[in-house]
Amino acid sequence: MSKIEIKKANNMPVQEPLVPEPMVPYSCKNSRTVYAMCEVNEETVRKHLAPTPFEYVSNICMIYVNNFLESPELPYMDSGIVFTVKYKSMYGGYYMYEWEDNDAAIATGRYWGYPKKYACMTLEKDGDIIRGTTTRKGVKLIDIELDLSKSVKDVPVLHTTFPHLNLLTIPNPDGPGIFSQRVTARDNSSTCKTLSNLHGEAKVTLNCSPNDPIGDFMPVKVMGGGYSITDFLATMENGWAKVIDTLI
Description:
Layout: E1 26-39, H1 42-49, E2 55-67, E3 77-87, E4 90-100, H2 103-112, E5 116-118, E6 120-126, E7 129-136, E8 139-147, E9 164-171, E10 178-186, E11 193-206, E12 221-234, E13 242-246
Parallel strand pairs: 4-5
Antiparallel strand pairs: 1-2, 1-12, 2-3, 3-4, 6-7, 7-8, 8-11, 9-10, 10-13, 11-12
């Protein structure tokens, strides 16, 4: 009978945990992102923030699709919609909705409060045209088309992107309700290097699936988009999230 080597047992199953050990550091050379900066309806943003402790700051958001597949430790595709929010005196970037295609990456992000769900992403470049899509349960939730041949100056940025402000929520195991809820902040921007960031005209289409209401933000006013390439690194010093408040 073979002997099972027991891991650190910091997640399940304890015999062979889903999340890689150690969880950090991890990296990705040439992380590629297509994104669009959009203005959406303020009332819709406030509605989606209502279940959170975060305050409304702006109706400008970033909608993106990211290719993180060159990561040797945790390869995945990623997409989402990000707003700047405020918690007490702290401003940060809040991932309102986010999707990935790797269950280990989803579980890792949820350790820190990122609201990740499973979906399938594509990111393709054909000359000056870059297209990113996100599909979940047969619905194309996100469709971004960027045309780099049509230059756009002064593409807006989020008021604040870092730290990422998250709401780490753990359900009760023995019935309805929340067992624990904490506000976390995570910022690894100091060890990430932007290699290039090109701007152009962008088109965005968003749709809802039964439990993915990103289509609520339509219609969007697209103010420009971009295609960026970044060397990403999350270190032991900055790759973890910090608990800044315990709500429950």
